[in-house]
């Protein structure tokens, strides 16, 4: 990861840091806040490598020198990472006490010391108060980074003494790429990133067998619908009904259906890069040949109407029955 990359992904936070680095005017404490998966930890690590790199080019660290490699592995003596212990529910006062004691000493190898607290909102009241005292009287040449997804759970007095950098939710493309980096298949990554822009929620979808099966059922339903209404209804009764059990699940089913028809529209408009069901491209192309753009738009309108009916607490099975008939043009 580089500052150039972060300027594209998290422009505000990256711009503030790069400007401060060029001017040599870093604040003594920052709060990096935003949803999970938005790059807070990666930016904290990049800042650390920038500050300690032995072969820095401008503000970009080399990622190859001894210091960069030690930071990447979490072993630099002038950087202290604090996070909740594995079996604990909170960050303890003793952990903050250790941190403040470490920073009372001179840096071991460098002119600066850096501490990073992950999930800072999980500090106990005693830990937060200890940190507040430390931040109120910062040591020279020290920088603090507090990472959090829930800034409202931090003490107001801590927030007021830090510069707050807000990380925005990932774009759909960035979220999809991040999921693929974590070993998620492209079809599941593409689909889940359409349902949410939160990394934690998307990764939860991808690791849920129910979601993978829901995707397969929607594809199977479309295959049946392409042949006949009766086959579609049969699939819905035999397979859909047992799998989709509440309003939220039926709503996801409708979203997955909507994405299928949106893919057909993308193919009509020659926007293949926007296709979500990327592993079913040939099948989508075949169906698209038999539907006009207006027909697809009408089908999407039917699905959106079905979603509104669900919000009005109409039974999910009844909504799907009506929708399947409409998608076949028999209503």
UniProtKB/TrEMBL annotation:
Alphabetical UniProt keywords: Nucleotidyltransferase, Transferase
Claim: Nucleotidyltransferase is one of the keywords in the record: yes
Taxonomic superkingdom: Bacteria
Record bears the keyword Nucleotidyltransferase: yes
Pfam family, one: DNA_pol3_delta2
A single GO molecular function term of this UniProt record: DNA-directed DNA polymerase activity
Classification via InterPro entries: DNA_pol_HolB, DNA_Rep/Repair_Clamp_Loader, P-loop_NTPase
Annotated EC: 2.7.7.7
Designated name of the protein: DNA polymerase III subunit delta
Lineage: Bacteria, Bacillati, Bacillota, Bacilli, Bacillales
